[in-house]
Amino acid sequence: MSRPWNATHAESHLPKALQGLRIPAVASPLFIISVPALVIAQCKAGVIGSFPALNAREGEGEHPLLDTWLTQIKEELDRHNQANPDTPAAPYAVNQIVHRSNGRLERDIEICVKHEVPVWITSLGARVEVNDAAHSCGGITLHDIINNKFAKKAIEKGADGLIAVAAGAGGHAGPQSPFALVQEIRNWFDGPLLLSGSIATGDAVLAARAMGADLGYIGSPFIATEEANAVQGYKEAIVGGSAADIVTSSLFTGVSGNYLRPSIEAAGMDPDNLPSADSTSMNFGEGSAKPKAWKEIWGAGQGIGAVDAVQPAGKLVDRIASEYHAAVARLAGEAG
Ligand SMILES: Cc1cc2nc3c(=O)[nH]c(=O)nc-3n(C[C@H](O)[C@H](O)[C@H](O)COP(=O)(O)O)c2cc1C
C-alpha cells in the first residue's frame, strides 16, 4: 500500500500521532459497533481507527474488557508493523464519554494511561483531568464540539485538538453548516482540527481539508463493513439508504441525533411525529436502557448515499483513498 499523499508541509503543525496516515482521515468511534476487529482493520488500512471505551462491557466480577481489548489491538498492530515496516498501521484512538452518568470514566482512564493510548477522543464534556491523564502517558486529546463556544471551552480545558461535528453527522450531530463551523474555529485556532458530518467519499475528505480542517472524521460508512458489530439489516439499511432516510430527533438519547427512518418505523413509531426529550435524560451508566435503544434505533449520518456495499473495512478505506487521490489530481490539474 503506497502513501502518495505528499503531506510533509500540510502535516508539519500536527502532533506525531496524526501524521503519516495513508489519507488524512480518522474512522470515528461508534457506540456498540466499533469493536477490536473493526479498529484493527481501520488502522491496518492506514486511517486512525477508534472505539468508545464503553463498548467494552465485561460481566459482573470479570476482568475489565477494555484492558483485554487494548492488549489485543496493540499486539495485532505490532505484529502488522513488524511484517509491514513500509506500510505501518495508523495509531488507534479510544473515545471517552465525559458525562456525569459515566460511572466508569475514572477506571477507564486508568486503563488507557496504563496502555499509553496515543489518541484520546473525548465527547460530551471537556475536563482538565482527562486531558492531563492523556498527556501523562504521551497521548493527545481531540474533543468533539458542535459550535465555536464549546470549541473555545475545550481548548481552555487543555484539549490538543478539536473535532467539529457539523450538520448531517451520524450520532449527536450539530446543527451548523461545516463551512460556518470550520471558518469560525479557524479564526482563532490553528491546532489540529477534524471535521465530521456526512463525509463518506475521498472527495469529501479533500473538501474538509480545502475548508481548513486537517482531517476528515468518518463514521456511518463503517457501519456497513464486515467487521462492524451491527446486525445485517442495519448494514443493509446503510447501503440502501440516502440522506432522505435520515431523521433528526432528541427522543432516543436526550440530545439531537440522526437516525435511519426505517428503524424508527420498525420500532412502531412515526418518524414525522416524534416527541422531543431533554438532555437530563442522557444516561451512559451501566444500568442504562439506552444501549437497547441504540440497538433498535439505528443511528446514521446523511452521507450514506455513497455506501453501496457491505465490504471489509480495508476495502472501504481503499475506495475512499483512491477517490481522495483522484480528487487531488483533478483539482491540481485545474489549478495547473
Ligand atoms: C451509530 C452511531 C454511534 C455513535 N457513537 C458514538 C460514540 O459512542 N461516541 C462518539 O464520540 N461519537 C459517536 N458517534 C458519532 C461519530 O463518532 C461521528 O461523529 C459521526 O458518525 C460522524 O458523522 P458521519 O456518521 O456522518 O460520518 C456515533 C455515530 C453513529 C452513527
UniProtKB/TrEMBL annotation:
<keyword id="KW-0503">Monooxygenase</keyword>
<comment type="similarity">
    <text>Belongs to the nitronate monooxygenase family. NMO class I subfamily.</text>
</comment>
<keyword id="KW-0560">Oxidoreductase</keyword>
<dbReference type="Pfam" id="PF03060">
    <property type="entry name" value="NMO"/>
</dbReference>
<keyword id="KW-0285">Flavoprotein</keyword>
<keyword id="KW-0223">Dioxygenase</keyword>
<dbReference type="GO" id="GO:0018580">
    <property type="term" value="F:nitronate monooxygenase activity"/>
</dbReference>
<dbReference type="InterPro" id="IPR013785">
    <property type="entry name" value="Aldolase_TIM"/>
</dbReference>
<keyword id="KW-0288">FMN</keyword>
<dbReference type="InterPro" id="IPR004136">
    <property type="entry name" value="NMO"/>
</dbReference>
<protein>
    <submittedName>
        <fullName>2-nitropropane dioxygenase</fullName>
    </submittedName>
</protein>
<dbReference type="GO" id="GO:0051213">
    <property type="term" value="F:dioxygenase activity"/>
</dbReference>
